[in-house]
Amino acid sequence: MGEIPVGVQLYTLREETKKDFKGTLQKVAALGYQGVEFAGYEGHTAQEVKAWLTDLQLNPASSHVPLEQLESNLAQVLHFEQQVGNSHIVCPYLMPERQTEKGYYELIDSLNDIDTYCKKEGMSFSYHHDFELKKLSTGKSALHTILEETEVNVELDIYWLTKAGEDPVEWMKHYRNRTPFIHLKDMTTDGEQFFAPLGTGGVDVKAVMQEGHRAGVKWWIVEQDQCKENPLSSIKKSLAYIK
Fold first, then answer.
1. Tens-place pLDDT, residues 24-35
2. What is the pTM of this model?
3. Dihedrals φ, ψ of 35, to 5°?
């Protein structure tokens, strides 16, 4: 078993990609990242993006695509992603108006449909979370319910799990081989619980990484929703910590 490759979620560098998408990819490659997880393409064509990745020897780990697009435009989304060379898509979040008990049950039907279509097209599909750890009337969390009622993979986010008082390693064990991507993210140890470069906060990143191969993790994805310093220097620190 080789090392699990490390990518960066480009949402972390959203201001940079807006200004210079290709230049940002160059900087990510220069830092030593092996791949990227996309969060939109800023109007660039699939052919352009594919050429840049090939040029920089960066792999497309996966791509976050808003649920509304997956529900209304899935065939076109998958065609674009396949042209980029990407075989995995992730539903990144649920809009607040859908975060109700009824909304979650409707979401389950929707995720099952998307998952079936993706498999038919040779793609895999994951659900990513942040608010889904609140309990439904059944006493189970929305996230557990979604994962029990679907076969979709889950992109666990170790910051949000820790913040909700959950143990990321236990989730990885429970959903073994359904967690191809893990968002590696740290949290400051003060009252603010702000996003932090890996190794500088209180999340047990080491324990998560030790569980990686057993859990069937295919990619570690570094993400920092907000940075107090330059995001590039944050992701540089995080990669140095992983290494």
1. 999 999 999 999
2. 0.95
3. -165, 180
